[in-house]
Design a protein that fits this description.
7-stranded mixed β-sheet, alpha/beta, about 35% helix, binds guanosine-5'-diphosphate, binds magnesium ion
Length: about 500
Amino acid sequence: MPQALADIVAEAKLAGRALIEFGQHLFNPTVRLGVTGLSRSGKTVFITALVHGLTQGGRFPVFEPLATGRIARARLAPQPDDAVPRFDYEGNLRALTQERRWPQSTDRISELRLLIDYQSQRGVARTLTIDIVDYPGEWLLDLPLLGKTYQQWSAESLALSAHGPRAQIAAPWRDYLATLDPSGPEDEQAALRAAALFTAYLKACRDERYAMSLLPPGRFLMPGDLAGSPALTFSPLQWPEPASQALQQSSQPGSQPSPPAGSLAAMMRRRFEAYKDVVVRPFFQDHFARLDRQIILVDALAAFNAGPDAVRDLEGALAAVLECFRMGRKTWASALFRPRVDRILFAATKADHLHHTSHERLEAILARMVERATARASAAGAPVDVVALSAVRATREAKVRRGRDDLPCIIGVPAAGEVVGGEVFDGLTEAAMFPGDLPADPNQVFGPLPSFRGLTTAAAQDADFRFLRLRPPQLAEVDGVASLPHIRLDRALQFLLGDRMP
Ligand SMILES: Nc1nc2c(ncn2[C@@H]2O[C@H](COP(=O)(O)OP(=O)(O)O)[C@@H](O)[C@H]2O)c(=O)[nH]1
Ligand SMILES: [Mg+2]
């Protein structure tokens, strides 16, 4: 089917479903809440804590419907989508509360339905249905590929890999590309080798020393069922200069110049398009386009550990995320159908690694990052807010005397295997930590490079920030129910759901 026609058919399907869902929502108000973030940003812990707090009456003073006693009860119910795995709430909660370990990491989509019985402001009994959709942020960062030709994507990926720490990591892959002729005959072995080197480069960028964020295509990092298939066996190619310029000029979206039939470039392009068809479009249609609200979890502390390059990269990723919501409105918008996300929250997770005096600073830095990203992405088309939170707080605070000063520090149990000053932690011993003070002026983080020292360029003991992995906290039980301490989880809830329980 020609692309334009396929798009029309897809859009008609979406519009049809949007109408049906709209009808259902009239009788049965539903919010589809997307929870995303890169791998290990804290999605699983966030959803587990949120559901636990709502169903077990957590301490959420800022979440108005709960704080004022309007919520009668919240309970789990069977989810609407039969083909999507269920979020393993019970297993994750057991890990956190009984085994005192963080839940197993997953890299696929999952879903959970929550029903909240509440009283409206006027005292009428109502029920709000919340469908929580947990999906990898890596999938979201694939959406911009839909608007790019293979040549554009090749040029952009190569440009990105030419600077900062990426240049060194990408060298083996780039050196290999330099030996390939895009207009030469197609060659499976060359494709395999280029894809393997490209994948190795993307994977190395995710190492904690670099903590890069913007690394599409997402399935190269988490292939799942598609591992080894042609849709994942491609790589950007490098065109010789004059040809590259000619291609750039003529490659307006929709008028993709075709590389010669049977060439290596034609083969790569076909697979790039297959990736969009098999992976990206279905994700957009089946999941992304149906969300009402979106929270994007950001592990800013991992970027601080790594250094200023990682912070910049994160900012680039936030711009790409915002672009998805904006693009959703422009590119696919028709009179019938628009992506529905009408509130976007960026949340810096794991704020319990910082003394509370730095929580505002973390929030300010994230806000500054989103602001700059918004400028680059020319507005998201929906209200955006930021918060620094900890879904499960694993630390407490204390002052420690150092010479004449009282230093604010945090106390927690570093995870087994974490090392500080030559000492290896066993996962049982408590320690007081000074992870480093975030700058009071957020602009300082974005100063000319290198604005601070991180693992990318310095040894661990010389880095300005050192946020260790911690064990989950020992929990207090109230009436036989473990209560999970958190930081500002209620503020996130108020922004995401407060207005939907009028
Ligand atoms: N201290 C602390 N660590 C957290 C918190 N949330 C997540 N983490 C850490 O981040 C890791 C990844 O979290 P997870 O929810 O599995 O991330 P996901 O891959 O986005 O689902 C966990 O194993 C914890 O080590 C938090 O609120 N506080
Ligand atoms: Mg997860």
